[in-house]
Amino acid sequence: MRERIVLVLNGGGALGAYQYGVYRALVRHLDEQARRDMVVVGASIGAVNGYLIATHQGAPDGGLDAMARFWRAVTQPSLPFVPFFDANSKRLSASLTGLALGNPPVFSAVPGGFLAGLATYPATAGYDNRRLVDTVACHAERYSAKEGEGPRLMIRAIDIEAAKPVWFDSAEQPIVPTMIGASSAIPLLFKPGWHEGRAYWDGDIWHRGLLQPALKRLDSTLPGQRWHVITAELFKQTPGTPQGFGESLDHFRRLFFGARSDDEANEALQSYPELRITRIRRQPHPGESTSLWVMDWAPDRLAYLIEQEKATPAGLWPRQALAVLDAGL
Predict the structure, then answer these.
(1) Is 29 exposed, middle or buried (0-12, 13-18, 19+ CB in 10 A)?
(2) How far apart are the C-alpha atoms of 122 and 139, rounded to whole Å?
């Protein structure tokens, strides 16, 4: 039986630019059939990238041009809040720009700011991601494909009222931009995302990562299928004491959400002995200690993240994984 790819794309704000670079590297090793048979699992910015991949899979480049256009559109030049030119200062200025102004194609800053928004949350919040829904809709108004005609797209969001995760699955229903917005509304920071009268939070803010629940769902609908999971991981737990607000926030995010990918990978291999997993992890970018992952959308940072796969191809793609891909799975 031909092995099929499951591409897992987690959340991470502007760090999602790295997922574009990973996918650009992956496409070079996939034929048209492999792309059609692929399953794309995403949440938050991973849901955005997954939607762009799925809706433009029929293009000769497999959706790369659509992703390039999106990431060009969401770049945001920094204001000179910090009048220095070292890496940390540039990252701090970029983060402060996002905090103060938002990012028009992705989220808007609500008058009164984050602290004022918390006072009456969820009626108000510091930011609103409805502009992301409009931006995504400009690329495609919906995605629907039968088995074998295009990638299966699975997007996770958290149903606030039910207090549990839900899956928007193209095998069951068309995927539309409001589902992407629902999967991308970070609690407390953003207003809840709405889809068909229900309120949702970011699908990556859950005590379980995407991998195990997605595999369980796939196993129930496609029992016996052999899978090659490829994860483009934006966070991981790192040792040491963080320095500065940006690094501390990132460290908090990694401790509670990034480290679970290690546990999940081991659990998945125990549950599915024939499963193949390739984990792609990014390297730190210059000035990361003062960069807020959800606020720093500066052109130089996004370009660095996208191009990282070119700079370190050996570290990005293990040789064994390349051999499997080039052999046609």
Answers:
(1) middle
(2) 29
Q: Tens digits of per-residue pLDDT, 123-170?
A: 778 899 999 999 999 999 999 988 888 999 999 999 999 999 999 999
DSSP alpha helix (H) spans, 171-298 = 177-182, 211-221, 244-253, 260-271
Return d(Cα 12, Cα 28) in angstroms, integer.
Answer: 25
0.85 exceeded by pTM:
yes
- Cβ(159)–Cβ(166) below 8 Å: yes
Given a contact cutoff of 8 angstroms between Cβ atoms, the answer to whether 95 and 290 are in contact is yes
Q: What's the token pair of residue 67?
A: 């992703």
DSSP codes, 210-236: SHHHHHHHHHHHSTT--EEEEEEE---
User: What single letter denotes the amino acid at residue 55?
Assistant: T
| Per-residue pLDDT tens over the stretch 40-76 | 999 999 999 999 999 999 999 999 999 999 999 999 9
